[in-house]
């Protein structure tokens, strides 16, 4: 799968989860990898791109999570 | 900066011989508005006997999920200087050695971008820069990273590994703690900066069972140097000690395994029964030294009392050579983290997970054979499990 | 002024850049060491070379100007090299005995406390407290200052039966191995968190807040989209507050300090040991917490009077029994001393052998 496509899947997963359940990095790797049959490392690389670009960010509240940055 | 707040309670803590943190805050307040307000803020906490800091929030440097702890005052109107007062954790060099040139450069940068207050060091071992505003985080990070420094860990991530000074200045080091610590830190940069664990994970590396770095009490993975084979004895030096100490009372009688004897002329050790507690070696540094086949014992699981009680690390690998490139060690760590990732809940430390799922299961899943060194005693109940393969069909 | 290019994932500078020459040259070659005084020791290498170390206390919370002063001392005496210990002391190292006295003199002249080596009280491991922590039930730096002022002679001069490691944690999170110290002070709460329903709704995840409670005291309150607490089950650990900021637990009148003793991390003679509760609660009495310093003195006095040479506090108590400890110190034994949590069963006395107190 193209990296851009993986990035889109990750972003949509985080978006859909916003306000319901905070996702940890590991939740995202496990879910995307299982749902789409891609290696975790590949998901991780795509996620890292998103975080490096600031499209997604790490947050902390009694644990570290991946979220969409506040407007 | 001129004095902004009266601090009668804190002033009391400038009296007496021990160096005063209040004096430090006042020194920083001379050229920082933030530290000036920190003084007033702390005085109010003292007066009201309650903290005025709020939870952290979403602050950090781009791309990283740790290294910065958000901190805000709950009374920012009264103390605008500490409205934001974030902490930056900078990864310490192994062994806490510095040159004045390096430290002064960091101090200049911190005066420019922060409050001028630090912790040398934080509990985990980071060089902690205490108090800056959100907009100063990126510039400070650019300045320090371009000079060869990086952030330490925070959140659900690998925390900054730390160690005793080991072979750099201690004759008891059975492993090269500083080299190992640096290697682990470099090997796992991603795990430190981009939190992916159920909760925190700490490594602490001690050169011998004296454990000056308290690894057994506060590291998820405690690496403690040890040896096999006989303690090296210099009998001439034993004779010299006999002239200035009561070897029978202070050494032989205090040996926990009763494996030593001294007849006034020479010292004998029944090494097979020695448990390497280090008492005799620590008290007779010139006469006794650890054996020459050196390595480490790996222990896993310690943590502070939150939530169901404190744990100390326990033995999972009785003996491992800790020499570069540490392949066997890294293979094991990767397996342990995979297992923790698979089964761990949010905020569950590895030690707690093993307690929940069972130690034998952990050993099987990560591929470690059982060994009597792993327990103080075998189980006393008759309720144990078998595998399919153990059952006759 | 433009910023330099940021780098990521480079890790810390390699330690070899910072080692004093005598340390670098004799790395891994040390033969033995001797304690020369409360604040000085010498390590001797196979090569015959020696390194002399001078140790002084710091409050851990340091201003950049203080670090610059340490740097100036290091430049004058140690070729610009210095290090810190894991117990917040600063160490200056020189390669000849003749260089020790001028260094110690300068430190003394500048009012630094030189000491902490050998069978003494070293510096106190501690946390942030009111100076910088949101979950603090007490201050840490102030307690450290009050205690160390009170026992300073055991840092700079007087010997004890063995080392006494003191630690301070400003809440039960216990950042920093407080739970395995000879004497440790821990900030504790006595009252449950207060729920701000509106903020729970806006800022907290109800399921993770509920699961954060070790005693299952928290349950959902669907009508308010919040949570409720079964008060009799709450043991005031504050873990829910870490997960949900809308459940503040700080209580100025009821927060205070517990004292635990007898722990150690070293394997010397006996196994590493957790500290055990001896005083469940002392009120916060800043700025100098006199009730706390009195209690610490009581423990130290009983230890000095009762312990044999080389016995740590816990080893001494092990020998005389905890009932002996309460007899020697005069601390009142209360319901709170008897464990009713995770490890309770192991702590009950299943024997008829005890000493009268």
Structure notes:
The complex is a heterotrimer of chains A (71), B (393) and C (357). Chain A is mainly α and 71 residues long. Chain A has a single domain, classed as Winged helix-like DNA-binding domain superfamily/Winged helix DNA-binding domain (Arc Repressor Mutant, subunit A), CATH 1.10.10. Chain A has 3 helices and 2 strands; from the N terminus they run αααββ. Chain A has helices at 3-17, 25-36, 40-53; strands spanning 57-60, 64-67. Chain A has a two-stranded antiparallel ribbon. In chain A, helix 2 crosses helix 3. Chain B is α+β, with helices and mostly antiparallel strands. Chain B is globular, with a radius of gyration of 25 Å. Chain B has helices at residues 8-12, 21-29, 33-48, 100-113, 137-145, 177-187, 189-193, 215-218, 235-244, 247-252, 279-283, 327-343, 350-357, 359-366, and strands spanning 53-54, 68-69, 72-73, 87-90, 97-99, 117-120, 127-130, 162-163, 203-206, 221-228, 232-233, 260-262, 267-269, 288-289, 293-300, 314-320. The N and C termini of chain B lie far apart (84 Å). Chain B has a 5-stranded mixed sheet with strand order 8-9-10-15-16. In chain B, strands 2-4-7-6 form a 4-stranded antiparallel sheet. Chain B has 3 domains: 8-145, Alpha-Beta Plaits, CATH 3.30.70.2500; 162-227 and 293-388, 2-Layer Sandwich (Sulfite Reductase Hemoprotein, domain 1), CATH 3.30.413; 230-289, Alpha-Beta Plaits (2-Layer Sandwich). A 5-stranded antiparallel sheet of chain C has the order 1-2-3-6-5, with helices on one face. Chain C has 3 domains: 15-109, Alpha-Beta Plaits (2-Layer Sandwich); 125-190 and 252-347, Sulfite Reductase Hemoprotein, domain 1 (2-Layer Sandwich); 197-243, 2-Layer Sandwich (Alpha-Beta Plaits), CATH 3.30.70. The model of chain C has no long low-confidence stretch (mean pLDDT 96). With 357 residues, chain C is of the alpha+beta class. In chain C, helix 4 (141-151) crosses helix 9 (290-306). Chain C has helices spanning 21-25, 64-77, 100-109, 141-151, 153-156, 197-203, 206-211, 239-243, 290-306, 313-320, 322-329, 344-347; strands spanning 30-37, 40-45, 50-57, 61-63, 81-84, 89-94, 125-126, 166-169, 183-188, 218-221, 226-229, 256-261, 276-283. Chains in contact: A-B, A-C, B-C. The A-C interface holds A 21-22, 61-63 and C 205, 207-208, 212, 242-245. Strand 6 (117-120) of chain B pairs antiparallel with strand 4 of chain C.
């Amino acid at each position: 799968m193209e990296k851009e496509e993986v990035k889109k899947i990750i972003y949509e997963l985080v978006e859909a989860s916003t306000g319901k359940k905070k996702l940890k990095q590991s939740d995202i790797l496990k879910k995307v990898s299982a749902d789409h049959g891609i290696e975790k490392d590949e998901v991780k690389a795509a996620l890292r791109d998103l975080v490096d670009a600031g499209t997604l960010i790490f947050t902390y509240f009694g644990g570290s999570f991946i979220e969409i940055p506040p407007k | 900066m001129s004095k902004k707040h009266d601090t009668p309670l804190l002033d009391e803590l400038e009296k007496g011989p021990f160096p005063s943190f209040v004096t430090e805050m006042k020194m920083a307040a001379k050229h920082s508005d933030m530290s000036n307000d920190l003084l007033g803020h702390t005085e109010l906490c003292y007066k009201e006997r309650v903290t005025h800091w709020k939870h952290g929030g979403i602050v950090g440097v781009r791309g990283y999920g740790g290294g910065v702890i958000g901190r805000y005052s709950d009374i920012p109107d009264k103390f605008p200087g500490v409205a934001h007062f974030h902490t930056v954790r900078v990864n310490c060099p192994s062994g806490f050695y510095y040159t004045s040139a390096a430290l002064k450069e960091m101090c200049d940068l911190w005066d420019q971008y922060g409050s001028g207050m630090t912790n040398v060091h934080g509990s985990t071992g980071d060089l902690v820069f205490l108090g800056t505003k959100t907009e100063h985080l990126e510039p400070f990070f650019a300045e320090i990273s371009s000079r060869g420094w990086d952030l330490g860990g925070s959140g659900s991530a690998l925390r900054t590994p730390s160690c005793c000074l080991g072979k750099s200045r201690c004759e008891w080091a059975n492993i090269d703690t500083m080299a190992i610590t640096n290697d682990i830190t470099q090997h796992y940069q991603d795990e430190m900066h981009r939190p992916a664990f159920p909760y925190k994970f700490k490594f602490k590396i001690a050169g011998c069972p004296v454990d000056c770095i308290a690894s057994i009490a506060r590291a998820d993975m405690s690496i403690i140097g040890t040896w096999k084979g006989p303690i090296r004895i210099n009998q001439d030096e034993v004779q010299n000690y006999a002239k200035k100490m009561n070897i029978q009372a202070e050494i032989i009688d205090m040996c926990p395994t009763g494996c030593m004897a001294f007849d006034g002329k020479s010292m004998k050790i029944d090494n097979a029964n020695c448990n390497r507690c280090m008492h005799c070696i620590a008290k007779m540094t010139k006469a006794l030294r650890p054996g020459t086949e050196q390595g480490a014992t790996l222990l896993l699981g310690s943590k502070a009392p939150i939530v169901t009680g404190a744990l100390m690390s326990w033995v999972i690998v009785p003996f491992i050579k800790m020499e570069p490139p540490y392949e066997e060690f890294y293979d094991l760590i990767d397996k342990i983290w995979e297992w923790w990732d698979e089964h761990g809940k949010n905020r569950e430390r590895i030690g707690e997970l093993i307690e929940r799922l069972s130690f034998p299961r952990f050993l099987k899943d990560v591929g470690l054979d059982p060994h009597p060194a792993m327990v103080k005693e075998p189980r006393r109940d008759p309720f144990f499990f078998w595998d399919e393969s153990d059952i006759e069909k | 002024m433009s910023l330099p290019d940021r780098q990521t994932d480079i890790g810390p500078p390699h330690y070899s850049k910072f080692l004093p020459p005598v340390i670098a040259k004799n790395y891994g070659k040390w033969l033995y060491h001797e304690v020369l005084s409360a604040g000085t020791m010498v390590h001797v290498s196979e090569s015959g070379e020696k390194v002399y170390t001078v140790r002084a206390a710091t409050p851990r919370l340091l201003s950049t100007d203080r670090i610059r002063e340490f740097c100036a001392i290091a430049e004058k005496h140690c070729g610009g090299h210095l290090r810190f210990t894991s117990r917040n002391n600063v160490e200056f190292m020189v390669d000849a005995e003749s260089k020790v006295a001028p260094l110690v003199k300068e430190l003394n002249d500048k009012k630094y406390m030189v000491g902490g080596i050998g069978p003494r009280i070293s510096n106190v491991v501690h946390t942030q407290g009111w100076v910088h922590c949101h979950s603090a039930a007490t201050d840490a730096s102030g307690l450290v200052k009050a205690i160390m002022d009170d026992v300073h002679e055991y840092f700079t001069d007087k010997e004890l039966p063995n080392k006494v490691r003191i630690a301070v944690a400003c809440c039960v999170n216990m950042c920093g191995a407080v739970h395995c110290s000879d004497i440790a002070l821990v900030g504790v709460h006595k009252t449950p968190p207060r729920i701000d329903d509106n903020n729970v709704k806006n800022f907290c995840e109800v399921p993770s807040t509920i699961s954060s409670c070790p005693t299952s005291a928290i349950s959902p309150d669907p009508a308010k989209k919040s949570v409720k607490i079964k008060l009799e089950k709450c043991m005031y650990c504050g873990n829910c507050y870490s997960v949900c900021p809308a459940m503040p637990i700080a209580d100025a009148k009821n927060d205070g300090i517990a004292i635990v003793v007898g722990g150690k991390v070293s394997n010397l003679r006996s196994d590493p040991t957790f500290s055990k509760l001896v005083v469940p609660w002392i009120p916060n009495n800043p700025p100098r917490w006199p009730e706390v310093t009195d209690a610490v003195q009581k423990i130290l006095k009983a230890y000095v009077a009762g312990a044999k040479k080389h016995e740590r506090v816990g080893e001494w108590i092990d020998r005389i029994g905890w009932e002996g400890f309460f007899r020697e110190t005069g601390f009142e034994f209360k319901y709170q001393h008897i464990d009713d949590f995770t490890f309770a069963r192991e702590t009950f006395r299943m024997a008829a052998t005890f000493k009268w107190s």
